[in-house]
Every structure is written in structure tokens, then in C-alpha cells.
Specification:
Blueprint (H helix, E strand, L loop, with lengths): L2 H44 L8 H20 L6 H25 L13 H12 L4 H12 L1 H12 L6 H35 L1 E2 L2 E10 L2 E8 L5 E7 L8 H20 L8 E6 L5 E6 L3 E3 H8 L4 H20 L2 E2 L8 E6 L2 E7 L6 E2 L25 H5 L7 H16 L9 H10 L13 H10 L11 H10 L8 H11 L24
Antiparallel strand pairs: 1-2, 2-3, 3-4, 4-6, 5-6, 7-9, 8-11, 9-10
Length: 522
């Protein structure tokens, strides 16, 4: 079955088991309070001296306990959903057996025409409607469950109950036979809908598997290639999620396409790798990128606190490598922030940096990839907490030194465990970036003076007072003398202690227009 149907089938198996458990409990209470004496009198009539009189409550109690066990199993984490569903088919057959024996134990008069529905038939139809399965599996499971109806009738006749006439037998077994056909028909319809849903979620050669996050206009999905084993992350924007005027939707989609084209130009190992991009049949735009395994810097500091200076420097040097290439190609990221810098496992390496989301990228050189209408002058774009003064004021030309400022804010976050300015509104933070002098990070954490000087120069209000390029910033960081180092062994020990593998890969994303928080972690 499609993955989406497998997940739904497991959840619904649990609910079907819970419904069955409730019905069994109601039967036990009804038997104990109203019909026990009449039932035993009838059993004594046809099975004198037989222990069969105690069988109904025992069978129903067994079905109750089994149903509760199945429900509990579906609530636990699963690795093999199909195996659990196969066991669910066995559960269906066992419950149908208990219901069939309870239904036939009180015996039928030889010529009385029975016109009701058996308990087993009702259960089989409920199971087929609630728990999706492939048509073949549903047919086999329903047939196995329905087979208990004639078996139970034959056992009761062999034990002493009167043999019903052929007409009565046909009326007794007809509902159960119908339930088998019903189960197959329902499975055929539901499975077909699931296949169409899966095809609708097919983007190029990739199939969407699990949504990892959403917000604003975008979504990020875990995906699988149709023929390759490599997993991927797909970032997409659906046309119906844009809203607004047609011109606004067109601009948003073109900005999304610009992000893909900009990222595709970059080859730094510290820039997230783009595999593919395109448009789906429903006019959604998507691009396919590597699936990362780790934690972004926002979550890292929130969870573990400020970093030791040697580790922070190693992270910043790798981010500089990504930005240096982007700047050389005339691209300004404009949304550098901790949530857009990912610390991950990469092959045998740990503490490996990937810079994400060039969604607000600005081209500072002309070329076929650039479209000035997508980065309008006078607009504030980016995240207020990490916004360069020239971006915050909306005045002057914005160049690569805006990214240097934002990376200085990231460095402050890593070293001090707090943001440069702590305004409680976006406007207060924007004004602070324009007018206020940042408090030295050494006020909040032990930061070497030389390193603090580099960070504060990145946070200069005037672009000309900052390091001119990412390469220059990297050189300044590398020249800082630190009393200790952050070795590969220390990094591996940290990951083994705090984020032991193999964790669930998670891809983090942010909005295409401002900020789109996506929970990310290990």
C-alpha cells in the first residue's frame, strides 16, 4: 500500500480494536445483568451437562483483552507497519471466530427462518471500512474471518443443537458471505483513492513521504527518489497557499524559483546541495535538496547554551566559506540567522556547517538569473533580530557586508547565548540595529578580547567599518589566538553524548518572504 495508507491503516486498526473492546464490554455487562439465566437455560436444553454454557462470556472476554492489546500496540512507535497490519488480519479472524461461536451457541430451531445479521458479518464490514488494505489482502482476511461462521454452526450442531433446514442455513450464512464481498469492494475503492493520492504527491522523480515542517507559503517534505536509494528534502510552495492578487502569486513563485536558481549556482560544500527543481501538475513550485542530519544553530544554543569560543570560530569559518562563494557570484543572502545555518553529520564528519535558504537572495550583478523586481528597493526583507542597519532603514545599497553584519549577529548568539538586541517587538529590534550600540558579548560569557573585537567590527553600523568580504572575516577569525582548540575528537565526543546517531534526519526551512519557523532538531 502507499505510505499514506499504511499510516492511516495502523491508526484505524487501533480505533477499530477500541470500538470492538467497547462492544465486548457492553456484551459482558448485558450478559451478566439480563440474559445469563435465559441463555444457560437454552444451553442446558440442547447441550445438557456441557461446559458450553460458560463459553460466551469467556470468548467475549478474550476478544476484549485481545482488542485492548492491539489498540495499545498501535499507540507505540512502529518500525514495520505492514507486519502489524498482517497481525491485524489475524486479529480480525480471531475476533470473528469468537463472535461466530457466541452467535450460534444458543442454537437455531430447525425450520425458523432467520432474518438478522450475524455479529461476525457486522464486524467484518466494520473492519473493512475502518482499516484500509489492498483488495487482495482485504478479500483473504474477510474470507478467513467469515469461514468461522459455518464452522461455528457445524460445531454447535455436532454438539447437540438441532440442524437448521437448508433455507435457514442459507439465511444464517448469507450476511457473512455478503460481508466478504463488501470488504473487497471497500478495499478496492479506498486503495484506488490512495494510489491516486500518492500519484498526486509525486513531484518529478520524487515521492513525498513525510511533511517535516510548514509555515507561511512553504512546506518541507521528506522525499524518496523513484529509483535511487538516496533520501531528499523537498521544499515546495503550493499555488493555492499564496492567495492575494495574481500578480502577487506570480511574484512569490518567481522568488521561489530565484532561490532555486541561486542555490543551484553554488558549489561550496558548506552550501546546501540542490538536486532538482520544477513545477508540479497543480502549479506548485518545488526544489529538491539534500536531507540534512543534525540541528540548526538556533535550536543548538536554545538547547545546550552558548558555545565555547573555539567551536564557535570553527562554525563561523565554515559559514564564511559558503558566503564567500555566494558573494563572488554577486549574491547576497539577506537572511543569515542561526535557523538558516545547520550543524550536521556529513559523511564521517560532524560539526559540519550547511547554509540554507537563499530565499531572499539579492543579485548585486546583472545577469540572466537576476530579476530586480523580486528584490524591491525600500522594502525591509529578512529577520529583524539579525537585520543589518542598511536593510533595517531601507536606505542605501545593500551588498555583501549586510551578510557580514548578520553573521556577526550569529557569532554573538553562539558566544553569548543571546541576541544582540532584545527588543520585545520587531520594530524595536529594527530601530536598535539602526541606532543602538551593542553590549560586548563578554558581559554575558567568557569571550577572548581579540574574538570580541572581530564580532563587534562585524556589527559596525556603517558597512565600510566592517570586514569587507567573507574571506577577510575568515582571515580575522583564523588569526584570533585562543587558549584551546575544538578538535575533531572533541566534536565527535559531543555528538556521541548529546546527539547520538543515527537520529531522524530533519530539514529546517524558513519563509520565502520573512521568517517561517520550522521546528528542527536531531
Amino acid at each position: 500500500m502507499p505510505t499514506t495508507l499504511l499510516d492511516a491503516a495502523v491508526r484505524r486498526l487501533g480505533w477499530a480494536a477500541l470500538i470492538c473492546a467497547g462492544t465486548c464490554l457492553a456484551f459482558i455487562l448485558l450478559y451478566a445483568t439480563t440474559v445469563r439465566d435465559q441463555w444457560q437455560a437454552r444451553v442446558d436444553l440442547y447441550y445438557p451437562g456441557s461446559p458450553l454454557r460458560f463459553l460466551p462470556p469467556i470468548l467475549v472476554a478474550g476478544a476484549l483483552l485481545l482488542s485492548l492489546a492491539v489498540f495499545a500496540r498501535t499507540r507505540r512507535p512502529l518500525r514495520d507497519r505492514q507486519r502489524l497490519l498482517d497481525r491485524g488480519m489475524v486479529y480480525q479472524s480471531l475476533v470473528a471466530a469468537a463472535l461466530s461461536f457466541v452467535h450460534h451457541l444458543h442454537a437455531w430451531d430447525g425450520v425458523w427462518i432467520y432474518t438478522g445479521w450475524s455479529h461476525a458479518a457486522a464486524f467484518i464490514m466494520l473492519f473493512a471500512a475502518v482499516v484500509p488494505a489492498t483488495p487482495r489482502r482485504a478479500l483473504l482476511a474477510a474470507a478467513a474471518a467469515a469461514a468461522w461462521d459455518p464452522i461455528a454452526l457445524s460445531v454447535t450442531v455436532a454438539a447437540g443443537a438441532p440442524a437448521p433446514s437448508p433455507a435457514v442455513t442459507a439465511m444464517l450464512l448469507l450476511p457473512t458471505a455478503f460481508s466478504v464481498v463488501f470488504a473487497w469492494a471497500v478495499a478496492h475503492v479506498v486503495h484506488g483513492l490512495g494510489r491516486r493520492l500518492e500519484q498526486a504527491e509525486q513531484l518529478g522523480s520524487y515521492r513525498l513521504v513525510q511533511r517535516l515542517g510548514e509555515g507561511g507559503m512553504g512546506e518541507v517534505w521528506r522525499a524518496e527518489h523513484a529509483s535511487l536509494a538516496r533520501p531528499a528534502a523537498i521544499k515546495l510552495i503550493r499555488g493555492d497557499a499564496l492567495g492575494g492578487a495574481p500578480e502577487e502569486r506570480t511574484t512569490a513563485v518567481r522568488r521561489f524559483e530565484q532561490e532555486a536558481r541561486a542555490t543551484a549556482l553554488l558549489r561550496s560544500e558548506h552550501t546546501i546541495t540542490l538536486y532538482d527543481f520544477g513545477r508540479a501538475a497543480d502549479d506548485s513550485f518545488y526544489y529538491v535538496m539534500e536531507l540534512l542530519d543534525g540541528i540548526d544553530l538556533q535550536a543548538l544554543v536554545e538547547r545546550f547554551g552558548a558555545l565555547p569560543p573555539p567551536r564557535a570560530v570553527q562554525i563561523l569559518l565554515q559559514a564564511c566559506h559558503s558566503l564567500a562563494e555566494a558573494h563572488e557570484r554577486g549574491l547576497v543572502h539577506r537572511d543569515i540567522k542561526p535557523a538558516n545555518i545547520y550543524l550536521c553529520r556529513h559523511g564521517l564528519d560532524v560539526d559540519f556547517v550547511k547554509v540554507l535558504d537563499f530565499g531572499l537572495v539579492k543579485h548585486t550583478v546583472t545577469g540572466p538569473a537576476a530579476d530586480p523586481r523580486l528584490t524591491q528597493e525600500g522594502q525591509i526583507s529578512g529577520t529583524p533580530t539579525y537585520l543589518a542597519p542598511e536593510l533595517a532603514s531601507g536606505e542605501g545599497d545593500v551588498d555583501r557586508r549586510a551578510d557580514i553584519y548578520a553573521l556577526g549577529c550569529v557569532a554573538y548568539w553562539l558566544l553569548a547565548g543571546r541576541t544582540v538586541f532584545a527588543g520585545d517587538t520587531a520594530m524595536k529590534q529594527i530601530l536598535a540595529h539602526v541606532a543602538e550600540t551593542p553590549t560586548p558579548p563578554s558581559r554575558f560569557a567568557p569571550v577572548p578580547p581579540a574574538l570580541e573585537d572581530v564580532v563587534l567590527r562585524c556589527l559596525a553600523k556603517k558597512p565600510e567599518n566592517r570586514p569587507a568580504t567573507a574571506q577577510a572575516l575568515a582571515a580575522d577569525l583564523a588569526a584570533v589566538t585562543l587558549g584551546e582548540t575544538w578538535s575533531d575528537e572533541a566534536a565527535r565526543a559531543w555528538w556521541q553524548r548529546y546527539l547520538p546517531g543515527p537520529p531522524t534526519p530533519v530539514e529546517s526551512t524558513d519563509s520565502l518572504a520573512a521568517t517561517m519557523p520550522i521546528e528542527s532538531g536531531s
